[in-house]
């Protein structure tokens, strides 16, 4: 298992392989910050799909977004995520922020052909999807060490278990207590940590063959 708590600049490689990424937004919806992150990956040459699981709803705070997800049903949200792959190829990288990790992890574990997975601020035990982590699928997980959700609700423990289970896995733990620290449109945004998360994500995509 690799777990890194440093915040230091890491330079991505200059020549990037192309990946096709399915990126799921967090509980505040498809914010401009999530869209900006997707554009950063596209600018590096990757294809990125960013479905709207909240049917156009964007929320000012996490609590309101979670309340909406609870109202429509988490099963409905997961179903929307699963439906997005109906017209997409199998060789995808599944990525998600917070709540979006749930459909991303489900698809990475249960849909054959995944090329990799990127989980931001969340992770659940692989047993949640009645399937072991697929052999040969690399995964990278990011979260803050004092985040009340990631560190306080067991996600970091699930992440550590996953990187022990997977053949190729990295867990990056950043100092801080913000949950959605990589969304530039939110007050929780941490520029230094977000930059490092982005660089590490691009390096992960670069390494895929």
Mean pLDDT: 90
Radius of gyration: 15 Å
* Topology order in helix (H) and strand (E) letters: EEHEHHEHEEHEH
The oligomeric state is single chain
Strands, count: 7
Q: Strand fraction band?
A: 15-25%
Side by side, the strands of the main sheet go 1-7-6-5-4-2-3
Distance between the termini: 21 Å
Share in helix = 25-40%
- Number of separate helices: 6
By helix and strand content, what is the structural category? alpha/beta
Largest sheet: 7 strands, parallel
Q: Which regions contain 5 or more consecutive residues with pLDDT less than 50? A: 5-16
Overall outline: globular
Short description:
The protein has 209 residues and is of the alpha/beta class. The chain has helices at residues 32-43, 62-72, 74-83, 101-110, 155-165, 191-207; strands at 3-4, 20-24, 47-49, 93-97, 116-120, 139-144, 169-174.
Notes on the protein architecture:
Strand 4, helix 4 and strand 5 (about 115-120) form a beta-alpha-beta unit. The radius of gyration is 15 Å and the shape is globular. A seven-stranded parallel sheet has the order 1-7-6-5-4-2-3, sandwiched between helices. Mean pLDDT is about 90; it is low at about 5-15. The longest helix is centred in the C-terminal third of the chain and has 17 residues, at about 190-205. Helix content is about 35%, strand content about 15%. Helix 2 (about 60-70) crosses helix 3 (about 75-85) and helix 3 packs across helix 4 (about 100-110). By secondary structure, it is α/β, with parallel strands linked by helices. The protein starts with a strand and ends with a helix.
